[in-house]
Amino acid sequence: MKKWIAVLLVSMMAITACSSGGNNNEGAAEGGSADKLVVWAWDANFNVKAMNLAKEAYQAENSGVEIEVIENAQNDIIQRLNTGLSSGTTRGLPNIVLIEDYRAQSFLQAYPDMFEPIGDSFQASDFAEYKLGPTSVDGEQYGLPFDSGVAGLFVRTDYLEEAGYTADDLQNITWDDYIEIGTKVKEATGKDWITLDPNDLGILRMMIQSAGSWYVQEDGKTADLKDNAALKEAFEVYKKMMDANIVRIHSDWSQYVANYNSGEVASVPTGNWFTSSITAAEDQSGKWAIVPVPRLANNDSVNATNLGGSSWYVLNVPGKEQAADFLGKTFGSDVDLYQKLVEEISAIGTYMPAAEGEAYKAPNEFFGGQNVISDFATWTNEIPNVNYGMNTYAIEDILVVEMQSYLGGKSVDQALADAQAQADTQIK
Asked: Scanning 63, 213, 244, 344, which has the fewest C-beta atoms within 10 Å of its C-beta?
């Protein structure tokens, strides 16, 4: 019964999507074996390309190992993994799969015998500490940490200057400071300070992780909403931003990016992976800087946090030893590979020795010559380690509704109490 409840919870977290390989024959053709390693990942220009760079590096020394990297949408990977793992058969499953850190514990705890421990293939202590919690269970390392979701505050320096500020004035600030500065920037320029999607509370995740808090207690299962001081302050900060009239609303990714590329919004606190979207507006080169994210004022928060990120996992299928060796000798130890990841796809890993490489130290002219990769690497090591647990997105669905109730007049305490009651009922 517990297993089937866990399976249901994982399924609830996934957005319903049609599988790109839903029939058994296609799945079997894509399955891994001892003779051929198969990898599943999403995003051809980022994760898939990163894995292909690792493949090239490994095959230079291991030419006899065949590796096939297959692109699937992230939601298709979630669905196909759930379907395959819950059936009790490994037929058609890959050797290696990429899983978002927020979802990892759901799979590791729902299917404890289906993932291979790979801690002996690399030195876990060489990776940012905050990545080790989501990728391990009971001290056993199952995932090899990949990209960092380390966040920064991207800001238009020309708009700041019109309001009498410089990027230095945004170093180590609180969210209250952020709102105050944003109000003055809008007064001076007419530009909104931030853009938010009411159905995406990623900004709350950034706020609470900076205080070492999450939506669940240390056990990763029990919802922690009603008496969560960091979450309460995050709710209050969100409302302050809305009340200050510095927020532009968007409803999808294209609107989100367009708000910045068009010059209509002046700052964005988000993951480093947004760098490529910012730099797409070539006419804005030299007009942006990246500073540490703001911190909560009252909850022992730091100016460092995370949004997103994923890691590589080896499934318990034939070829698992070769798969672990491949990951260990590439993403687990190859400093030169990480330089290529930065140079070719702007991917910042969480492998700390890589930060000493030249690519990490190179100035970025778009950001006024700032060493942005080096800065992101520094902030990565300051991110608090929290237990994301099994139900991040399911709980966030509840919080989205309660946030709107709070903005509509419900007290913050009542909103969080109602969210707690609902979570206690729906999530076990």
From this structure: 63
